[in-house]
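Run log // design_07
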């Protein structure tokens, strides 16, 4: 479903601030894979997601989604293939619009705009059922402005919006990092359920090794712009945090990153 072939990306090339972010990165995701991605600061995790999403062009390599080469497609044209939830709960939604209006925007993504009335009764009932499944009481607040919601509620709405059209690829970019532990756990459980119910191919970046082990069928570790460890299935399920820290130390990860990851 996703193929990254020899991806290279360098920022500020030829200057004193030159930074090699992706260094010959190769990764293939099968249909339905739920891959958690870990690594220290500067390992290239978010750069990889931004490259897939088309936020900036890559210097070398190819990106394919479901067999289609999207390497040169601009970001807005990749939106038909990709759903994304960001770290910042303020991103991914329109704060001044109601919950129902945000869901309607997501439902109409990629469609031709018309002069028909906004949200139909049928659509409103569909949104109500979706919100009810979140178990956050939001089905009774459908006209509430999204900007007035808590961070966890907002991320839950963003998850619904990102998966409403069942994208070929879902990108979760440390989407619980800005939430308190209890809310983060709730959003992670919700993410896991939505991914499995819709059989979504997913890449989830996290700094939390326990979450990386607990969720998904596959785990990859990045270091200096490439993948240094790739484990799946029963072998992944048997992992301990100490195993991942030991692997990180083998490649010379620094103490601050080890503390962050643990």
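design_07 sequence
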């Amino acid at each position: 479903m996703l193929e990254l072939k020899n991806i290279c990306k360098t920022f500020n090339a030829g200057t004193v601030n030159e930074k090699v972010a992706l260094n010959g990165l190769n990764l293939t995701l099968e249909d339905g894979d739920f891959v958690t991605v870990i690594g220290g600061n500067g390992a290239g995790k978010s750069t990889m997601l931004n490259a897939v999403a088309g936020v900036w062009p890559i210097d070398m390599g190819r990106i394919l989604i479901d067999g289609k080469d999207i390497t040169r497609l601009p970001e807005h044209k990749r939106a038909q293939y990709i759903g994304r939830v960001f770290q910042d709960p303020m991103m991914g939604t329109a704060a001044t619009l109601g919950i129902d209006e945000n869901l309607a925007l997501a439902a109409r993504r990629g469609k031709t705009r018309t002069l028909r009335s906004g949200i139909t009764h049928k659509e409103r009932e569909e949104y109500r059922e979706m919100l009810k499944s979140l178990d956050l009481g939001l089905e009774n607040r459908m006209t509430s402005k999204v900007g007035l919601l808590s961070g966890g509620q907002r991320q839950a709405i963003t998850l619904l919006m990102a998966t409403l059209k069942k994208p070929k690829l879902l990108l979760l970019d440390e989407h619980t990092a800005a939430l308190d532990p209890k809310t983060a756990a709730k959003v992670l459980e919700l993410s896991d359920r939505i991914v499995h119910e819709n059989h979504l191919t997913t890449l989830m970046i996290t700094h939390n090794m326990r979450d990386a082990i607990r969720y998904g069928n596959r785990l990859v570790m990045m270091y200096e712009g490439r993948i240094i460890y790739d484990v799946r299935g029963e072998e992944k399920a048997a992992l301990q945090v100490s195993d991942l820290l030991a692997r990180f130390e083998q490649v010379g990860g620094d103490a601050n990153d080890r503390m962050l990851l643990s």
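The radius of gyration is 19 Å.
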